[in-house]
Specification:
- By secondary structure, the protein is α/β, with parallel strands linked by helices.
- Helix content is about 50%, strand content about 10%.
- The chain contains 14 helices and nine strands.
- It has helices spanning about 20-25, 40-45, 55-60, 75-80, 100-110, 125-130, 145-150, 150-155, 170-195, 200-210, 215-225, 240-255, 260-275, 285-290, and strands at about 10, 30-35, 50, 65, 90-95, 115-120, 125, 135-140, 160.
- The radius of gyration is 20 Å and the shape is elongated.
């Protein structure tokens, strides 16, 4: 595999996270070829080269980044024009997706049969964080491969962590999203209590954020809650969180670990889905709790 700025980088999945990542790679001076089934004009308009298939991306790249929904894995990897058919013995696939470890392992083995290698490297952060290179990468797989790919990873995010054998990255992503799910409900509960107590929401945000009780989740979502700005387009849709919740729940059950706070929090995401709020931001949990408290909420 080529090193540094001489590497040809491909990206499959140019959605809400994939597109800002592609732009960061281009700004870092790396040649980037991409593919998605939808409109690629935002990508090509930023200097990327459009490919006709996942296979073509793999054929013409040293490193391919995949940023997919789990439902799209089969088509992208082993479908009729999947990247597996363009895989070669110098290829490394860096998978940023949130999916089951079992699905990722199937694709890793398929690539291995073609002498290609794969890193499990889920990304933690919103589209805005990805654009600002403030997202965090949880990398796992062969350490030597991770080290070879550092120039690409550093162009994607300021913080990447090597966590060990393949699948450890996804385990860490489950834990990170468990915390986000709980923190978001806690932030909504606090903001609703403040509203019921006639405290100014902006004052609450300014006071709590720098205190020991503050968190990134509180600072980000409490602002949205105070402004009622959780309607789409959303940086963190409830639909996406709901999908991840199902993966976390299965992971926790398989490890035999109780998750009482997470289990309680999931009720509100399920309720939000039942109310048709899937495209709203997770900050909309504030509206559900506010309504329970007798506040006039959207």
């Amino acid at each position: 595999m080529k090193k540094g700025k001489g590497m040809n980088v491909g990206i499959i999945g140019l959605g809400r996270i994939g597109l800002p990542i592609a732009k960061n790679l281009i700004e870092a001076g790396l040649p980037v070829m991409g593919y998605r089934r939808g409109d690629m004009n935002p990508f090509t308009g930023s200097g990327g080269v459009a490919a006709g298939s996942c296979r073509e991306v793999a054929e013409r790249s040293d490193v391919v980044i995949t940023c997919l929904h789990e439902a799209d894995f089969h088509d992208a990897f082993t479908g009729p024009s999947g990247l597996i058919y363009g895989a070669h013995n110098n290829l490394v696939v860096i998978d940023l997706s949130t999916a089951t470890i079992e699905v990722k392992e199937q694709q890793r083995q398929a690539l291995q049969s073609r002498q290609a290698r794969m890193l499990d490297c889920p990304i933690s952060g919103s589209p805005m964080m990805a654009a600002a290179k403030q997202a965090v990468l949880f990398a796992s797989g062969e350490k030597a491969v991770y080290e070879q790919c550092l120039p690409v990873l550093e162009a994607i995010a300021s913080n990447s962590f090597y966590l060990g054998s393949f699948g450890a990255g996804m385990k860490m992503k489950y834990i990170a999203n468990l915390l986000l799910a709980v923190h978001n409900v806690a932030a909504a509960e606090a903001m609703v209590l403040g509203a019921k107590a006639n405290l100014d929401p902006e004052l609450m945000l300014n006071v709590i954020s720098p205190s020991i009780a503050g968190s990134t989740a509180f600072t980000t979502r409490a602002l949205m809650m105070s402004q009622g700005s959780y309607l789409p387009p959303a940086p963190g849709p409830i639909q996406t969180m709901h999908e991840v919740i199902e993966l976390i729940d299965a992971f926790a059950r398989n490890t035999g670990c109780p998750t009482p706070l997470f289990s309680l929090a999931t009720r509100y995401y399920e309720q939000a889905m039942e109310e048709g709020r899937g495209e709203q931001d997770i900050a909309a949990i504030y509206a559900l709790l506010g309504r329970e408290a007798g506040l006039d909420m959207l």
